[in-house]
What we know:
- The chain is α/β, with parallel strands linked by helices.
- It has a single domain (2-157, 196-247), classed as Undecaprenyl pyrophosphate synthetase (3-Layer(aba) Sandwich), CATH 3.40.1180.10.
- The protein is built from nine helices and six strands; from the N terminus they run ααβααβαβαβααββα.
- Strand 3, helix 6 (131-143) and strand 4 (150-158) form a beta-alpha-beta unit.
Amino acid sequence: xxxxxxxxxxxxxxxxxxxxxxxxxxxxxxxxxxxxxxxxxxxxxxxxxxxxxxxxxxxxxxxxxxxxxxxxxxxxxxxxxxxxxxxxxxxxxxxxxxxxxxxxxxxxxxxxxxxxxxxxxxxxxxxxxxxxxxxxxxxxxxxxxxxxxxxxxxxxxxxxxxxxxxxxxxxxxxxxxxxxxxxxxxxxxxxxxxxxxxxxxxxxxxxxxxxxxxxxxxxxxxxxxxxxxxxxxxxxxxxxxxxxxxxxxxxxxxxxxxxxxxxx
Length: 264
């Protein structure tokens, strides 16, 4: 635990609520993969009488915070749900602002990603994105491709259903015929080569998965926070991780029986 606290020196204040939570974490039982549905930007802005785009702008700080904590905790994979295929239905001004924010983020954070040893991996139907966005994503992916400490996955123009459709079509194009097994299908998903999420966090209080990683979250633990995404910080992230560690993951089996309960 000393090593865990050392990794947060200068980030977490001594005797703060964050330090108390860090002391409760078991570093050997952290999730290998955390996926986040970043919900609540629009509601955050509306409650303050601001345009919705200001909520997205404020949400960038939450991204920085959760990325920083994940890197210091050495969580191998962090996946952020940034833009779904359904989000094209939003007003053009809002959509265009999202692309500008993404471009600014990549421009400002690429050096920090490299300093943390982070590999950047965008997933989704990337061919449907604006050309300048595709170019920036390709650059970030290429510059960080040899980094191995952590993988930051960003889902853009993403649909869990379409990911499965695309995987099947890739298999058909490669000449595969039925029956197709689970491992073969997984090898054609956008997330091929990555572990499935152990923990799925959704901010903003809504109780739905919103077409996100439908195949991969089959055995993920769900954690829903009432905190809107722009207000979500390391403290809330640590609370989610502690809740995850308090659960018994059975993967379809029966609960473990302790010796003290036998014969009771």
